[in-house]
Amino acid sequence: MSRPASRKSSGKKSGSAKTPKKMIFELTEENEKLTLELNTLKQLTQEQQDRLDLLTTKLMGAVDKKEFGINDNTDHRLVSIEMLMEMLNKLLVRKQIHDVSVESRVEELETRVTEMSMELAKLTKKNLAYEMGLEDVLKMDSVEQVRDKVYGLQLIAGQAFHSFSASDPSSDSLFLVKGVDQSPDSPAQKSLESARQLNLIPPPRKQPGETHIRNMHRDLRMYVMKEMSTLKSSGADWRMFASRVGMEDSEIQELLALKLQCPMGRVFAVWSESSSATVRLLHRHLMSPQLRYTLLGKRVADFYHVD
């Protein structure tokens, strides 16, 4: 009874066994797949090696070889990763320095362009003032008006003023004030005698307080400029006045650096470009608690209705 069962089991085992031919086929197929993968990996490895060689060659060509103890004949594949990283860091530092240098140069150029633009704006304003002044001269009927207009233009230009004669028949020694140069804006005048006399006789009838400072009494205007050009330790002088009428601190510092004998003349020239620069407003500034030019304010009030 046991033999038939034994034959049945033997038949099942032989049915599940692979033939040598099938095993060879499967192994051959698997070998081909592995070979294909190997070739693909070899190709990728070669591509990465080519990229690394190219990067190494470029790095070696961009740095100082002597600094790293290599030369043109050094095999780039013998260069360590550490040395390559050091080369890369050197190049990054060099690039940062170059970028900073370029940025500084750009800032310098921007500053110069800004300064030139400001100078151009000043020249343009001066040129416009000259053109308008000359047009006004053509419309004037008296020599006195022309003289005052030319004086104003010369003040804007920073040139010497006209030499006005002190032998005015209306002059009175009681009202003559000494000490104002012909050219308060000219440093060369420091070597000249400061003996100009100004006629400060109040007029029979006061002028309107809305008179623009360009048309202000010539000698009174020069007297105000001379008095306010004297520096005070408190700073309540032409510098504070310039700040009150809108001049920038940088402009005030420029005038200080020029060491002008009468910087208030320049301040008046700048302020006169404003339509609100009237004698009434000048008087208000002079009498302010900050400036406290009481005597000057009273002198202006002798000539103009400022109340």
TrEMBL record:
Q: Where is the Death domain?
A: 235-286
Q: Does the keyword Lipoprotein apply?
A: no
Annotated InterPro entries: DEATH-like_dom_sf, Death_dom
What SUPFAM superfamilies does the record point to? DEATH domain
Record-linked Pfam families: Death
Claim: Coiled coil is one of the keywords in the record:
yes
Q: What is this protein called?
A: Death domain-containing protein
What is this organism's lineage? Eukaryota, Metazoa, Spiralia, Lophotrochozoa, Annelida
